[in-house]
Amino acid sequence: MTKPLALVLGATGGVGGALADRLVAAGWRVRAPHRDPDRACATSGRPGLEWVRGDAMSVDQIVAASDGAQVVVHGVNPPGYRNWAGLQLPMLASSIAAARAAGARLLFPGTVYNYGPDAFPLIDETDPQNPISRKGAVRVRMEQALRTADIPVLIVRAGDFFGPRPGNNWLSQGIVPAGRPITAVSYPGPLEVRHAWAYLPDVAETFVRLLEADLSESETFNMQGQAVTGHELVAGLEAAAGRKLAVRRLPWLAIAAAAPFNETLREMQEMRYLWRREVLLDNRRLVSRLGGEPRTPLAEALKAALIGQGSLPATAAQAA
């Protein structure tokens, strides 16, 4: 029996990489476009992926790569938030065209950026999307494009991503900087306020389980993920690191001063409002469909993320 085929854009990144790995484990063939497929094949250490030439900004290349696919995963993001507004919609247009050409379902990871304070503290799938940031406005336009694309779409919305592959996420770019041993935590908001986090392998598991469920033409589900206070996150990081950690507030004044000269810091500053009060996702619809939500224990998930971003030695996994 021929294995089903998934085209995964962003297979070298966080959510795309997690979905590519989980689809392979579920028995799918995974085709991964890359601007330099030979280099990706040589450096990724993931022999289960079929690397092909393809740039997410090239509709023709992505459509050609989608031949025979049942699923197209839109897991690609501009690195370091650079040129977010200029790149996101054209890259999504490539994924939409590929899904349409192949007759495939498009999988799209949603975020809380789409929402403003009128939807807080508990966001469900029907809440109005009234963002107060530029990045949120782009995200809303992306989902509007999906709704009018006349293709089957599956959106799984989650909180701030973290996982074994560092990327555009708060854990590796703000709270515990990647590439250096963990000694301290810089937290962006009040430690007593709960915040929604999403471990990328859990997000990938949720997508795959939903693909195996009875889906209608287009559906959206929220993941609760790790809904924890700053105190609980710090405790999880300490359990993962095996030692006490210094805790300080993220230096927002320094970020504001440097933001005009650094696009990543400018985008981080724009998201500060999401840390000032509780922002959670209502997962009742997902639980009703699947009977539960995949959720790795927090300390275990944080340890994998810290090892992946170079903040803990790989030997820490063996000591667990």
Automatic annotation (TrEMBL):
* GO cellular component term, pick one: cytoplasm
Residue intervals of the NAD-dependent epimerase/dehydratase domain? 6-222
- Which InterPro entries does this one have? Epimerase_deHydtase (IPR001509), NAD(P)-bd_dom_sf (IPR036291), NAD(P)-dependent_oxidoreduct (IPR051783)
The record's GO molecular-function terms, alphabetically, read: aldehyde dehydrogenase (NAD+) activity
Q: Which Pfam families match?
A: Epimerase (PF01370)
The name under which this protein is listed is: NAD-dependent epimerase/dehydratase domain-containing protein
